Amino acid sequence: MDLIEGKERFIQAWGALGSNWGVNRTMAQIHALLLLSPEALSAENIMEELKISRGNANMNIRALIDWGLVYKELKPGERKEFFVAEKDLWEVVKQIIIQRKKKELEPMVKVLDEISSVEGDDPASEEFKKMVREIKLFSSKADSTLDTLVKADSNWFVGTFLKMIR
Amino acid sequence: MDLIEGKERFIQAWGALGSNWGVNRTMAQIHALLLLSPEALSAENIMEELKISRGNANMNIRALIDWGLVYKELKPGERKEFFVAEKDLWEVVKQIIIQRKKKELEPMVKVLDEISSVEGDDPASEEFKKMVREIKLFSSKADSTLDTLVKADSNWFVGTFLKMIR
DNA sequence: TTGTACTTTCAGAAAAAACTGAAACGTAAG
DNA sequence: CTTACGTTTCAGTTTTTTCTGAAAGTACAA
């Protein structure tokens, strides 16, 4: 397998993976391309390599920046913008956790709070409220566990964690 | 807020959450409905409550069973099949981890193995191989961490983990 | 064997998500 | 001010995903 082919395979695989992670296919492919690229790339470079339109490239690059997975880089003298990926994978995972926690877990907790106030003391209502309380408890625990995880650093994660819990 | 309304809100919210977790909206709504239901429900019950077609109900129920999130329950004397949700949320999360690890992480590791054999010792190829090795290392660690996590039991998760890592 | 009650399948329809390309916009240099 | 170079936006189109409904399949009982 040669380099071109290898890159291609990786970009495809990373794209497929991303599409299950709240990151659409193209967004993940752009990230993959940047991950493999030692130098910063311009929007044009990305459009060419992935054969996508300017609009698509621009929108997905912005989204990656919002997710904190890609950074803008301005070269002195150049008017064009260049982009580099966050290459520390633990950092990438952390960013995804942070973003998704905010976008998913927190709204869920809000709904749970609201619906825990259903009226009625019949068995069905009591049952419902009990289930809601349980889910709320679990969510809060998940929330704070993720917070702690995100504060932990890379070395701790890859090194100590495993030994500690065995 | 009354019970009907509360259930409705919960089903909507759980559906939205699921759609970001590799579980489609309807599948997650069926799971939500079953979670709230003290008794097992038939396909018909589910079709009515969620206003979906028989085909859709059937396909999503099967998928939930495949994911290990819902169980079939046969009532003696009844020909119809009934369904109950796995109600232990830690069990639910574990199942999702197991399934997604298999469907996503493992194929990724396979691709990484393949592409780590790119030929060429020019700087670009070396750079590429270095990146691939790093990603592979990270993936393996994630893989075994998740394995360990999945083996741990619910009480450990909700109780000890937090204290341990603080 | 036939009827009945239920489940499964799947082609086509509908809905949702992603992409394109061109026009509008912003900004620095001339 | 105007041109040149680059970025952003978004209406319309394409692609992908999900859903429907009817037909086919299965299994038990009479």
Keyword list:
7% strand, 7 helices, DNA-binding, mainly alpha, 3 strands, elongated, homodimer, Arc Repressor Mutant, subunit A, 71% helix, disordered C terminus, 3-stranded antiparallel beta sheet, 166 residues
Number of domains of chain A: 2
User: How much of the polypeptide of chain A forms β-strand, as a percent range?
Assistant: 5-15%
Instruction: Give the helix level of chain A as a range of percent.
Output: over 70%
Q: Helical segment tally of chain A?
A: 7
Got a strand count of chain A? Answer: 3
Model description:
Two copies of one chain form a homodimer. The longest helix of chain A is centred in the C-terminal third of the chain and has 29 residues. The first copy, chain A, has seven helices and three strands. Helix content of chain A is 71%, strand content 7%. Chain A has a three-stranded antiparallel β-sheet with strand order 1-3-2. The C terminus of chain A is likely disordered. Chain A folds into two domains: 83 residues, Arc Repressor Mutant, subunit A, CATH 1.10.10; 77 residues. In chain A, helix 3 crosses helix 4. The first copy, chain A, has 166 residues and is mainly alpha-helical. Chains A and B meet through helix 1, helix 5, helix 6 and helix 7 of A and helix 1, helix 5, helix 6 and helix 7 of B. Chain A binds a DNA duplex (30 and 30 nucleotides) through helix 4.
